[in-house]
Amino acid sequence: MEIKVLGTGCQNCKALEKAVKEVVAEMNLQANVEKVEEIGKIVQYGVMLTPGLVINGKVKVSGRVPSKADIKKMISEEQ
Predict the structure, then answer these.
(1) Separation CA 19–CA 74 (nearest Å)
(2) I need a labelling partner for 62 at 20 to 30 A (CA). Which of 20, 27, 40, 48 fits?
(3) Where are the chain's structural domains?
(4) Disulfide connectivity (predicted)?
(5) Which member of 10, 25, 27, 39 is catalytic?
(6) Could you give the 3-state DSSP secondary structure of residue 18?
């Protein structure tokens, strides 16, 4: 599973990255969690507001930090 956290390093971006890593650990998943900070790469996903969350190539969230329960649900949908 490929998970990308899109963001330039703002507080919300860091919060989303932390939450995603916690959820992956709690779910005992084999997942590659990558932080994407380059504006050009973020825009390629069509994300104009950060933070963004991309799971297996699909943009799941843009412009907000979802709850851990929401992150778990999004990951489960892609398994």
Answers:
(1) 13
(2) 27
(3) 2-77
(4) 10-13
(5) 10
(6) helix
Q: Catalytic pick from 3, 13, 74, 75? A: 13
Domain 2-77: state its class.
alpha beta
Residues ≥6 apart with Cβ < 8 Å to 38? none
pTM for this one? 0.95
| Cα-Cα end-to-end distance for the chain | 8
- What pLDDT, in 10s, does the model give residues 30-69? 999 999 999 999 999 999 999 999 999 999 999 999 999 9
Active site residue 13: yes
Active site (annotated) includes residue 70:
no
